[in-house]
Structures
1.
Amino acid sequence: MYLPPQFNSKDRALALELIRAHPLASLIGNDDEGLPFVSHLPLHVELRGEELVLLGHCAKPNPHWRYLQARPRAVVTFLGPHAYLSPRVYPDLMRVPTWNYLAVHCTVQATLIEDALAKDRLLKKLIADHDPAYLQQWLALDTDYQHRMLAGIVGFELRVTALQCKLKLNQHRPEAHAKMRAGYAAAGENERALGEWMDKLGAGQVGPDPA
């Protein structure tokens, strides 16, 4: 992605925080005609030593797993909070609107997970991420039903080979930060989340607006 230096975060811990907070990913591969093919699905992230791995699954009727099998190199994107930024936050008038957002892009190498026990372990990791109270219900289900459900999905392990983290929070325009932070604090959920990230990165710690 386009990554100006002022928005390029090299802190992998921040990227992991974004992924865990916003796990619904866009998995992008290529179909048999060479066109991009996108699936939107939650992914579990884990560190194995220094290696970053994403785990997920798709329905067996979804052709994406076959595309990954044939062409295992793919891209995964995660989009964090995002919001419009009005030029009214600047002390001068010669400004234009923009959009602030947080995003992580991963280049990955895919390996399919088709063994039933391995898929069950994968599902339990996703359950632990999103609905740990459901685990006992899953374990109590009829074994035949569990097997049918597991047979209906294909799991995959996505080994991250390259990582980009873009934190676009107007870091290069500190003269706008006071109004920007105040506006975000008074707005919706996405805006408030961006304001919290401004505070985390120090982008909101500025003095009074010179205007």
2.
Amino acid sequence: MAMERDIERKLIARAIAGDREASAQLLRHHQPSLRAYLHRLSGRADVAEDICQEAFVRVLSNLHRFDDRFRFSTWLFTIAKRLYVNARQKHSPVFNTEALSWRQGGGDGPGVQTSDDEVAGHVKDALQDALMELGEVQREVVVLFHQLDWPISTIAEHMDMPEGTVKSHLHRSRQKLRKILMAHATHNSRLKEVWS
């Protein structure tokens, strides 16, 4: 849920004046959505966490430069996106070694996780895999619109593109995701037939 502009402006003014609690409130409010955004872009929780922390350090140390005619979240996400792009270029290629290791449940041994949790985990994994098959721009548009509930106009401002282009990316992304997920579901059902 978006913070009211007046409240956000007051918190920013207090944070610029050195009020640590105001800075902490800004962090607490924006951190979950920023972390989720970066995780969906990168496909890696560790990368998302690192970039999220670095983005907040940059934002808080440059808060005096913020132009309050714009949304704070747009400024924050733009800084985070630049940090992500820089990190990706610096460390490319990055291989996800977590995908090669066994996932552990919350219990002591195998079989502790319920089938509902397992299904939800598979759906989440399939969606993340499908998102990673999209181009970077399309993936970002989908995440901002569907996960973070940003309006088209805000996405257009953030990504510096016309609203019509954002809508086109969103439409094409949905179609591609649908195809990827349908292929994934077909593939999984064939695997189940082989193992049954």
3.
Amino acid sequence: MTDLIESEFISKTWPTLSQMTYLNNASTGIPPVNAFKAMKQYLDNSANAAGKIEDTLKAFKEIRQNLATLLGGDYNQYAFVPSTSEGVNTIAHSVEYPPGSNVVLCDLEFPANYVPWQNASKLYGFDLRVVKSDEGAAPLESFKDKVDENTKVIAVSQIQFGTGFRSDLSRLSKLAHDNSAILSVDVIQAAGCIDTDLVKSGVDFATGQSAKWLLGPIGAGYIFVGQSVLEKLRPRFIGWWGVEELMEFEYRERTPLPDARKFQVGSPSMVSYVGLLESLKTLLQIPGKVRETAALSNSDYLRKRLSERDIPFYDFGPENNSAIVSCKPQDVEKLHEELLKNKIHCSVRNGRLRISPHLYNNQDEIDKIVDNLR
């Protein structure tokens, strides 16, 4: 459904897409041209000792405001972290774990959303309970047997990186809250693509970074902290960006900020966030439902074409499908190499070909990759 977004807007905003077939957004998205220009300008300013800290702080506030517009809530619920892994560690080390506590996640998670929990379980002594997936899916029912009154956190990805399974966050949050637990969500494979409201979904904590569907640079990560848990969570680490009166440097007792920024430890990667700001501005020119519909229409068309070619793929139904399509043509690794030679970009994950179209893709590109599959 390329008519949802004008082709001229796409060609002007992402000019390099004309030189390749890019269907690998679950790995990294292509930043808009304005993001590159803004980052270059920032570096040029640095080389000429230009720019003021007040301008930087203003830009940081605008980024948080744009994240709130994109993902829901108030801008004071957002703060910066270098990566998704850092964001997951933030929540993992901010929760109290009385004896007998447990944390529940599933075996589909990317390492960024399970390695920190494995480490935390060793440090704090809680039981790490792993839900077993079935055919690429981990629905709500599979979590119910693992969650009880001693569960402190349910940790899940909104969309699973390898299979594309999309979780029902509202139902998971109810399961968590019915057991006085926190729902922590890795949103990296959804933010910028799937129209999401973290507050309406009942999410307590979320984290991601900009280099995938947000179409920003690596190094610009973020967290969201729900109002109901903001005062309950206690930062394990704190730094000068997380306290009041940022620009007062003399030695004295410092007070943590009252909002999500209390979890910020050190100076953010300025140039990365300059790029993220422009990426967010570009995405927010397109209504959330339009972004989602454009991406999902591409992935739905891909599933249709794969079915016509009798190539197996995961299909979880309309409620749980995403823009990530995991399929299994023959000789996946060799096929992937051949696709790259033809400037057709996708990924191999867990022995399957992962194709992930975004809002700037179209059905002609889907036809091109399918015609190259065996």
